Every structure is written in structure tokens, then in C-alpha cells.
Amino acid sequence: MYTNIYIYIYIYIYIYIYVYIQNGEVWELTSCHRYITSIYTYRYVWHIHIHIYLYIHIDMYGNISIIISVFIHLYIYYAKCDEQPSYLFIVFFSPYARINNLLFFSLQISDSPLFNMCLPEHLLWYPLLGFCVHDSVPLPYLQASRQRHEDRIVVQLQNGEVWELTSCHRFRRDEKSGLNSDYNGPKSSFPCVDGYVYDKSKWDSTVVTQWDLVCNREWFAKVIQPVFMLGVLLGAMIFGYLSDRIGRRLVLWSTSAGIFFFGIAAAFSFDYYSFMIARFLLAMSGSGYLVVVFVYVTEFIGMKARTWACIQMHSFFAIGTMVVALTGYFVRTWWIYQIVLSTVTIPFVLCCWILPETPFWLLSEGRYEEAQKVVDTIAKWNRASSCKLSELLSLDLNDPVGNEPLEVKKHNLLDLFCDWNVGTRTLTVWLIWFTGCLGFYFFSLNSVNLGGNEYLNLFLMGAVEIPAYIFMCLGMDRIGRRSVLAFALISGALFCGVVMVIPKDYFIWTVVVTMAGKFAIGASFGLIYLYTAELYPTRVRSLAVGSGSMVSRMGSIVAPFCVYLSSVWTFLPQLLVAILAFISGVLSLMLPETMGKPLATTWEEAARQDTENESSGKLFPTTNNTALKNVEVIDSGGSGLGE
């Protein structure tokens, strides 16, 4: 006899951060000493309270219900020294998640170039024999001198030579002039062979400071991110194709292992080129992982839980963004920062080999006995009676067809354009992917111009994505995928238009409308992952999601250049995003609705989505690759496999 089991776990974390900030610094330098006078001293006082509630309920039938609630209270105070701190704001965040029968969490932080490639203030380094200057000094004197002497400093050595130092050049005055800043006489230019002095007040070490990627080598730093995005493009396409050829499980394990291995390799790169190669391979692995893990979860979750399970994966991606921000705040050395983020994947690398292959893929390959073993395992874990695939599919497992893999056609990108209707669907989906990614990254990049603490800004940027995903899940299960997608895209276009007509004096309203636009575009970008997986049959599902992800990365590459268009006209970027979002929203209305429908296994079933509104949940194909009728799967009171 079974009994109800209740497990309640409560975790409380309290973090207190007290930071002093010096402003208005005045430095005095002598031959052997340096002095600083603090005119004003300010302080930030942070109180971070984190409450984690984990509630597990196992009923008499063996069904498992899990509720996780996370409450984060962030208090920030700012005040002058010896004054009472003034209250600024509180951030309250409470995500809620419940997954019945099958629980799958995935948190993936492959790499974030936001803080490990920052360019600090820098000057040419020169052995100043008469001054106490070293490359570990955070440039208080140098910065003050540059302000007084038009972005340069003038120093005099013990031998009497007078030098002018700038960020990328150094000159020796040919005539004796003392430290006069308005010297107009002849100068001798010398190349920079002694390195640079970097401002270490924010970052102890970055990729830029590691290999001096400044001045005439600055373009080396600028190509790091485009090369990374090229790896993302290729990874989404290659691993999406491979997962349809060799299975989801093997690709899932190899990509997660690649994220860890290449992430560590990037941290221990011995030169710039090895770093670029490691990051390129890291981008391929991370992109392939995201595509395949989404398809994997989609094929294991039934219709009733599919929306919440798949969309909330994006919430964990947002949580990963917040983790990146916290890691960047506490770790200011780039290679340690890289190692910390790479180690996040260790638990999954060690455990993912336990995960089985999806029954969908096994059945599409004709491997019925292996699919039956997976079904039996799922039923055992759920303490439910297993269904027999031979009965559901009218198979004779004694026949070679039931024991040996079928010779099936291998698909490629051209199969996404096999006829006019499918090709039109693919182009529409690709446009939505591109627009969603372009708008998402445009709003993210443009929000940096709001100023403030860059770590706090990034943390909040991840936190504000959670409400968009919750809204999207509620709408998708009640209104439908197509309607919510069209509403989100058209709303994003309207918000972009509203921003263009808000007067400059109403800055707060500009910020509010901009964030609303990001919510709308972000919701559409998260929805298109699941929608694409439901629009295409099993044999090309990973290929379809991978190709869409590849097209979306083109949008992420274009996004920075879209921001630069504001130099031509202030609202030109918003106008471009608004036009694309509106067109995508209108075209999305021509896509079939997939709410409440089973995943298609063949092109015929995918084509019937336009005309049929099947109410029965059908999971498995028959021997002639048509979906079985009148079979309900993953039912809460059934076998544990269907709905």
C-alpha cells in the first residue's frame, strides 16, 4: 500500500556587501612615495536575502509533484560617509515551477564575453625613473594629468628628457622645455615596445590586457565576438543535423562535454590565436547543446506539460544571465571568470550518459525494441503499467522489421523546402527567428546606455525576462501559439513606434516603453523555439530548430550595427525593428496552430496541421509512418507516457 510522502526543504542565504567608493581623488607623487587625499567618500550598502523553498509531494500512485519558490530581496543603499544611507529600491523575484511525472532542469552557461573582454583605460608604459609609477597603479595620477594636458601626460626623467605619453603614442621633445604643456617644438616619435599601463580599478585582468589588444592591435579584440558568433551559426546547423542522424543523446553528451573542455581550454590559452580557436569550438558546442537539449525535452514531454517545461528552460537561461553578472562582480580576472562559468556544466557532463534516447527518434529510425525499453523504464519510474508498442503500432516484433533499424532516408536542409507550403512555412519561421533575436539583442544592447552599475544592469536584465516567459506560458495554453506569437511581435512593433514619439523630457516613460518592447520581443523569441519544434516532423525537427537558431544568430550579429544606425537618425534602429516585427507578426498568422496537437512524425501529419484539430494525444507512428488514432498518451491516470 502506498502512502503520501511530503518533503519540505527550506534554504536561507544572506549576503551583506559593504563597498567604499572614492571620488574627487588628489594624488601627490614623489621619487619614493605617493599620497592620496580623499575629498569625498561614498559607500554602497547591499543586503541580499535569498529564500529557497523546495516542496516535494509523492502521492499514493507514485506521481511526483515538485514546487520550487525562490525569493530574492535586494536592498541597495547609497550615502556619504557618516550619514544615514538613503533607501533606493527593492527587487522582488519569485519564479514558480511544477513539473509532474518527469522533471528536467537545464542550466547552461557556456561563455559570456561581457566582462572578460572589457577595454580599460590605458597609457603607454615607460620606465619613469623619477616617479613612483607602476602598472599596478589604478591610474589616478595619470588620469588627472591627461585631463589637464589634453589627453596626454608630460613627464621628465632623471636625465632631463621630457616625454609626452598618450594612449597609443609616445614622443620625446627634442628641445628642453621642462613640463610645459603648450610645447610646440620638434618631437621624436617612438614605437610602443614596453607595453601599456592599464586601469585596474574595475578589472584586474581581461583578454585585452592579457595580450595588449589596444591601439594598432585593437581590431584583434573586435573580431573575437564575430568569430564566436560564426561558431554559434555553424554549431546550431551541424549539431542539429547530427542529432537527426545519430540521435539526441550522443550529441547532447558530446556538446555538454565540449562546453566544459573548450571553456577550460580558453581559460588556459597560451596566446591570442589559441584563445580564438577555443572560443570558436566553445561557441559551436554551446549552440549545438541549446538546440538539441530543447528538442530532447520537447520529445519527452507530453502536450499538457510541454509548454511550461519547454518555455521555462528560457527562465533558467535568464537565471544563467544573473549568475554571469554575480560571477563578474566577484571575479575580476578573466581566466578565473572563464573557469568558474565552465565548471557549471560538470554535473550534467557526469550524469547525462544516464539519459536515454527519445522514443520519438528511436521509432522514426525503426528501432522498436530499444524504444520499448525506454518506455518500460519511464513506466517503472512512474510506478505505472507500461504500454506495449507492438500492440499500439500493430507490429510483429518477431519480424526483422521490428528488430532491426529500418533503412530510412537521411534528411538535409533542402527537405525544409520540399514543396511550396513547407518552403513558405520555413521562410516565415526563419524571419521570426531573425526578428526575435535582432529585437532581443537590440533592446539589451541599447539598455546599457541607461548608465549605472554594469553588473547590476546585467543582473536586472536577466531578472526582467522571467515575467515575459510566465505571461507567454499562460497565453500559449489558453489562446494558442500562433495568436500569442502574432500579438507579441505586433506589440513589440507598436512599442518601438511609441518610443519614437515620446518627448526627450519624459525619460522615465522612454525607459518603461523600451522595457515593455523588450518583454514583447523576448516573449516571441522564447515562443518560437517550441513553435518550431511543433511545426516540423520528428526526422527534421532538430534540423529545423538548428537552422532557425542559425538564422537568429545572424540577427545577433546585425544587432550591434543596428544600434550604430542611431548616429544617422536617433530612431532609425527602432524603426527598422518595428518594421520587421510588424511584418513577422502578420506572416505568423498564416502558420498552423499546434496547441493541443501531438508532435508530427511525418510530413503528411505536419501538413494536416493546417486543416485538422485533433483532440486525441497521439505519440507514436505506425509501421507505415502514420499517427495512430484514438490513442491517448501521457495521461495523468494512465501509463505515465502520454497525456
UniProtKB/TrEMBL annotation:
Main location group: membrane
Xref: InterPro entries: MFS_dom (IPR020846), MFS_sugar_transport-like (IPR005828), MFS_trans_sf (IPR036259)
GO biological process entries: monoatomic ion transport
Subcellular locations according to the entry: Endomembrane system
Transmembrane segments: 5-21, 52-75, 87-107, 223-243, 250-270, 276-297, 309-329, 335-355, 427-443, 455-472, 484-502, 508-531, 543-566, 572-591
PROSITE patterns on file: MFS
Keyword tags: Glycoprotein, Ion transport, Membrane, Transmembrane, Transmembrane helix, Transport
GO molecular function, one term: transmembrane transporter activity
One matching Pfam family: Sugar_tr
The keyword Membrane is annotated on this UniProt entry: yes
Domain of life: Eukaryota
Reaction(s) the record says it catalyses: (R)-carnitine(in) = (R)-carnitine(out); spermidine(in) = spermidine(out)
Domain Major facilitator superfamily (MFS) profile: 180-596
Signal sequence, start to end: none
Topology within the bilayer: Multi-pass membrane protein
GO-annotated cellular components: endomembrane system; membrane
Similarity-based family: Belongs to the major facilitator (TC 2.A.1) superfamily. Organic cation transporter (TC 2.A.1.19) family.
Role summary: Facilitative organic cation transporter that mediates the transport of carnitine as well as the polyamine spermidine. Mediates the partially Na(+)-dependent bidirectional transport of carnitine. May mediate L-carnitine secretion from testis epididymal epithelium into the lumen which is involved in the maturation of spermatozoa.
Name listed for the protein in its UniProt record: Solute carrier family 22 member 16
Organism field: Canis lupus familiaris (Dog)
